[in-house]
Design goal:
The structure holds two protein chains of two kinds.
Chain A lengths: L5 H14 L19 E6 L10 E3 L5 E3 L11 H14 L3 E3 L6 E17 L13 E3 L15 E16 L11 E10 L4 H17 L7
Parallel strand pairs in A: 2-4, 2-5, 3-5
Antiparallel strand pairs in A: 1-8, 5-6, 5-7, 7-8
Chain B lengths: L1 H16 L3 E13 H6 L6 E10 L5 E22 L6 E22 L7 E20 L2 E21 L4 E12 L8 E14 L1
Antiparallel strand pairs in B: 1-2, 1-8, 2-3, 3-4, 4-5, 5-6, 6-7, 7-8
Classes of the chains: A alpha/beta, B mainly beta.
Chain lengths: ~220, ~200
Amino acid sequence: MRIKKAYPKAIAAVLILASSLTLWSCYPSAPDYIEDYDLVYTQPDNSYDFSKVTTYMLPDSVEHIVNPGDKPDHTYDKTILAELKKQLDALGWTRVTSTAGDVVVLPSVTHQKQGVCQAYCWWCYWGWWPGWGYYPPAWGGGWGWWYPSDVVCATYNTGTLVVNMTNPKQPKPNQLPVVWLGVLNGLLEGGTANINSRIQTNIAQMFKQSPYLNN
Amino acid sequence: MKYLLTIIAALAFYTAVNAQQVAEFSYQVSFPTGSFKDFVSKTGWVGFSGAYLHRLKNPQLSLGGAFTWFYFQDKKGHGTYPTDKENAAITGNRSNYTNIYQLVALVQYDFKKPKEHMVPYARIGVGGAYQDQRSDNGLYIIQADGAQFAAHADLGLRFNKDENHGFYIAATYNTLPAAQAMTATTFFGLKLGICGWGH
């Protein structure tokens, strides 16, 4: 039988190439728009009977959780409070000014500056190496950085609005039971009008995806 | 996994100095099924495999090993999705995807003499895999990865172009049972490959 040696060698070369696939991974392309990063999460206390709620207390201010020395940014407080009031009123609940309401709704905001570096390197597969480097916000200002010419760094702001709906009638020691939680997280980038619009849309979404509040 | 690697290495060495060896390279299109279809419903267009087989004394029977890389992605887009907590929901832009690196030992039976022009065959692969399942949600990535059992069964037809090489098509079913936080992964596939053999 005539044996061709060249062909198995070629196959072997392909196999070696195939084995190098262990260095490869695929990832989907990143979203195109800032609002594509917005995330709304809601979770109720399933043992709580929302059908008995008729009144709510919403404070006149938003709590800001900031790092020591940082000043809170109140730019979006009015939008947050107005949209929450609109949605709570739409449930048929009446706003009261004391903690005698059936529920107390407490909005709080945190924001962070994130930093990320990415490298385009000959040893990576085509495209940008995901998560090549990262430094936490605390390492931000005041530090001098040096990067190779093929490394690009960027910073971006993220914000989180947490809406805690609490039951003031069944307090535990130093605690108010949370009967509903709404969280909005996203990029705090873009113009003020755009951010205001996204805050309104996403607070509305918190209530839209919580139909049990309307029982 | 250590045993599997040892077996494959021993077979590779043995076939290098003995009897007939077969090398293959194939491309596979995959169609998710079962609970894996809930995670990724889209067809997987990335599936590459390299295999090495050794024909035994009965030349219709072969043993070997294969390494395979699969990638599945499903950009589910903006929507409201349930979570594992009752009545909890998450709204946002979601992309689910997974990379699977699979190493299996192979047993193959040819239903005709290997030198026939068309040779139907059945193949079973059993081994292990590393899988990296991820779900991008807004700024967050939910990741479940780790090692797991992997197996597949193929029914194929090999066309021998001449006495040294040919190509083949096969229907295949892959299964990777749920492990750690990873969703059980099952999918059908259509495989197209080339093969070559010699002493």
